[in-house]
Specification:
heterodimer; A: alpha/beta; 2 domains; three-stranded antiparallel beta sheet; 9 strands; 34% helix; B: 276 residues; six-stranded mixed beta sheet; four-stranded antiparallel beta sheet; 11 helices; 10 strands
Chain lengths: 258, 276
């Protein structure tokens, strides 16, 4: 079932002439992880704001085309520290803030909060004051806060930005798990090397428009490497002048090399 | 007399209330040195930046910036010697345009207006920000706001740059701009201490690896060797970046960790010629 459908969606921020999104058509189904890649300014963050119904509702501006959502959405912004309620004195209360605002019964709030804290390995921090957390810890708290609201469509903008290697790997695994549980996941990231293991499909945005949609193999294409969007391994192969097709990952490279 | 290094931490301990962050941390950075400060979330990395910038005072030990004890220095005085980019750089941007924001630092140092203009134009150009110079910082995406904060630090033309995650959300082309701007400053003698989880960027840019583990120094050595050694990285919570992993998997001579070096070695080996 479709969780998000964009048909020919274009979007202009207030007082700008050039659209930030140009005629984007995209479907995201329940159970899949779709990754948006592109140069900075290509439109990935804007597309997430449109999907979250924050643009133009909160940002202002103008949207044409159509956007249909089959599920309630939750978004993790690239500035997660701006998403903290500022009204909670413990991590547990911070994560409960969203579910409480949805008007759920107390036992359901507690169930979702405990589950989200476990998923983000935050149980040992449950009684900490959010103001004393490190950047990466706070990022995990915000992700837990969004997941605790049980959104059917989960939107992530650079979700691993402040995470260390272990936390990033755990997050990518959790994102796969979300899809397995039937959620639709749409994410924007510059962590291209993570995508072969995480994404079902990759959407390459350029100048606000969809340039290509495909499997993560797209990130080993000559065109993607030309544009600086190849995985590290594909890019090294490309820069070495060896013939294609380029390996996508270290494992692929090793197979090719033998 | 031995000259003072741009930065020296001498037995520094610090706690946020009852939550310990650093325990007896000692290291120094030489002029022109490019050091990465690595480690898990919560290891104390950002606390180091706040101490060096004078936003916090050590509970014990001393942070020396040149021959200044940060305990005796207000942050605005330290800005004569240290350019900082904080984890959440939004907190350090306030002017109505990117250009004015970048000019604020050198202007506050009291340098002449001609020099203010030269320094800020150079910094904006080095980071490819000139097209955004007239924009309000908050009209830019977060990654470019961080870059604007970096331009502000570069425009101070300090002896020491302390940067907390400068490349979050940047695409590869902009990461390369940051790398070349930092290499240029380092060649001119500026010392760099860069906190990053982006080990691909670290491999391209930095030479020394300092790893913090629960507030103490767990490792201090050449970065290239460290990044290629998965067994040393793992207990420190780090994972080799893809190029280093590729070099190790294919057993490329010299185990290059920078993409361009790896591509050269790969091409040479593939042509069947021995690598140097």
């Amino acid at each position: 079932m479709r969780s998000l459908t964009l048909e020919s969606a274009s979007f202009w921020y207030p007082a700008t002439e050039a659209p930030a999104l140009r005629e984007v058509s995209l479907e995201v189904a329940q159970g899949e992880v779709v990754a948006l890649v592109g140069a900075l300014g290509a439109g990935a963050s804007t597309l997430l704001l449109v999907a979250a119904d924050l643009a133009p509702r909160v940002t202002g501006g103008r949207l044409t085309g159509s956007v249909a959502r089959g599920d309630r959405s939750g978004i993790v912004l690239p500035t997660p520290w701006t998403q903290a309620s500022g009204m909670a004195f413990t991590v547990w209360d911070e994560v409960a803030f969203g579910p409480a605002n949805l008007g759920w019964p107390t036992h359901e709030i507690a169930r979702q909060v405990d589950r989200a804290l476990e998923q983000l390995e935050l149980v040992p921090l449950a009684s900490r004051d959010p103001a004393t957390l490190s950047g990466g810890e706070l990022q995990r708290v915000i992700i837990a806060s969004i997941l605790a609201m049980d959104p059917g469509l989960v939107l992530f903008d650079e979700p691993a930005a402040e995470l260390d290697a272990e936390a990033a790997r755990a997050l990518w695994r959790l994102i796969r798990l979300q899809a397995k549980e039937g959620k639709a996941v749409l994410l924007a990231t510059s962590a291209l090397d993570a995508l072969p293991d995480v994404a079902d499909r990759v959407v390459w945005l350029e100048d606000g428009a969809v340039r290509a949609i495909g499997t993560p193999e797209l990130l080993a294409d000559v065109a993607a490497c030309d544009a600086g969007l190849g995985t590290s391994v594909a890019s090294v192969w490309w820069a070495s002048g060896l013939p294609g097709p380029y390996p996508l990952t270290v494992a692929h490279a090793l197979q090719r090399w033998r | 007399m031995i000259p003072h290094p741009p930065l020296r931490l001498d037995g520094v301990s610090f706690a946020y209330g009852t939550v310990p962050a650093l325990a007896g941390l000692s290291f120094s950075i030489a002029p022109g040195e490019r050091a990465a400060l690595l480690g898990r979330n919560g290891a104390g990395k950002s606390t180091v930046v706040r101490l060096v910038a004078g936003l916090e005072r050590p509970d014990d030990g001393t942070v020396w910036v040149g021959d200044w004890d940060t305990r005796d220095c207000a942050p605005e005085r330290l800005a004569r010697r240290v350019g900082s980019v904080f984890q959440h750089a939004d907190q350090q941007l306030f002017a109505p345009t990117v250009r004015e924001d970048v000019r604020f630092g050198p202007r506050a140092l009291g340098v002449g207006e001609q020099e203010v203009k030269r320094r800020s134009d150079d910094a904006l150009e080095d980071l490819d920000l000139t097209p955004h110079a007239a924009h309000h910082p908050y009209d830019l995406p977060p990654a470019l706001r961080k870059l604007a904060a970096l331009a502000g630090a570069l425009a101070l033309e300090p002896a020491l740059l302390v940067l907390d995650e400068p490349t979050i959300g940047l695409d590869r082309a902009l990461c390369a701009r940051v790398t070349s701007a930092l290499l240029e400053r380092s060649a001119a003698g500026v010392a760099l201490l860069v906190i990053t989880h982006d080990l691909t960027f670290a491999a391209e840019t930095l030479q020394r690896g300092l790893v913090l583990d629960r507030g103490s120094l767990a490792c201090d050595g050449p970065l290239a060797g460290l990044l290629g050694d998965a067994t040393r990285l793992e207990p420190l919570g780090l994972v080799p970046p893809a190029v280093a992993a590729l070099s190790a998997a294919l057993d490329l001579p010299g185990r290059p960790v920078r993409a361009a070096d790896a591509a050269n070695v790969l091409a040479r080996v593939a042509r069947g010629r021995p690598a140097p």
